[in-house]
Amino acid sequence: MASITDKIELFINELMNNSNSIQIKRNELANLFNCAPSQINYVLMTRFTIDRGYYIDSKKGGGGYVQITKISSDKKKYIKSLIYERIGEEITYNAAKEVIKSLEKINILTERESKIILYSIEDKVLCIPISELKDKLRANILQNIVIGLLHIDESA
Fold it and tell me: Do residue 27 and residue 59 come from a single domain?
């Protein structure tokens, strides 16, 4: 049985099938699913993120809304936002895995390429005893791969 978060995500995805951008009212959606508005926030913050190809904008107050927009297919802009906003100076393996899976989802990486990258940034491969240094090294490797993807895309 699907969880409430899965149901909310599915509902929002179905709304977005016909549009690149939608506006929803958090309270109305919470009433529809008989849950707290914080549950809607959780879904938005974990399932509709930049690294998954979405941008969230919200207006608070009585007439407030949440606008969910699919990031344009401009891969260069998307990859640059991944480098600076999502990867940053350091990244955990799980966060890096999310970035890689999102690149696969939008057909920048193949499944095979994703697996190779994931194997190359695992903790056991990064033989450094200090975990913060592993996360920094992982970020450097991942940024270099993403920059390489951008360069390959430009020369194709």
Answer: yes
Distance CA(65)–CA(126), nearest Å, equals: 44
Digit-coded pLDDT (tens) for 50-62: 667 787 888 776 6
- Residues 148, 154: Cα–Cα separation, whole Å: 10
The 10s digit of each residue's pLDDT in 87-111 is 999 999 999 999 998 888 878 889 9
The CATH number for 8's domain is 3.30.56.130
| Domain stops at, among 39, 70, 101 | 70
Query: Which of helix, strand or coil describes residue 156?
Result: coil
Domain assignment of residue 63, given as a range: 4-70
Q: 111-148 burial string, b = 16+ CB within 10 Å, else e? A: eeebeebeeebeeeebeeeeeeebbbbbbebbbebbee
pTM of the model: 0.54
Say if residue 80 is in the same domain as residue 146: yes
